[in-house]
From TrEMBL:
Keyword Transcription regulation: no
InterPro entries: Self-incomp_S1 (IPR010264)
Pfam family, one: Self-incomp_S1
Keywords linked to the UniProt accession: Secreted, Self-incompatibility, Signal
Gene: LOC103323747
PANTHER family named in the record: PTHR31232, S-PROTEIN HOMOLOG 29-RELATED (PTHR31232:SF43)
Annotated source species: Prunus mume (Japanese apricot)
Subcellular location, record wording: Secreted
Similarity remark: Belongs to the plant self-incompatibility (S1) protein family.
Protein name according to UniProt: S-protein homolog
Signal sequence bounds: 1-23
Source lineage: Eukaryota, Viridiplantae, Streptophyta, Embryophyta, Tracheophyta
Amino acid sequence: MSSLRNVVMPLLVILFITTSVDGALLDAPKDVVVRITNALQNNVNLTVHCKSGDDDLGMQTLRINENFEFNFQTSIFGTTLFFCGFKWSNEFRWFDIFTDKRDDCSSCYWTIIELGPCLYGIDGLCYQWNKH
Ligand SMILES: *[C@@H]1O[C@H](CO)[C@@H](O)[C@H](O)[C@H]1NC(C)=O
């Protein structure tokens, strides 16, 4: 028993030192809710398809002012990424709806307008669509 501890402890110490030296201490996981609301003009439906490396959240059709919500825990490695395709009329756009680096929010409420997604309403933080 004590020999197992003799092996595990030094390994933990080495792991801790290597991650600290990197300046990349592991992040505490955080619970996040992402909500996406259709605020397009002319009453058009918005089709949203969100994914991460592990999850496909399926296609959601939102009428005007309707929203779609999902939640997850961020990764301790700071690599959480959810991206979505947005389709309306003859338009198709992509957006990284959550990345650890950019987003501090835990209630990340996005309002979708033609120009791009806005965090905290259209007077909040508005972003451009992904380039591709
Ligand atoms: C929007 O989607 C709903 C179903 O979710 C459908 O009944 C309605 O006809 C659609 N409206 C338009 C304008 O396409």
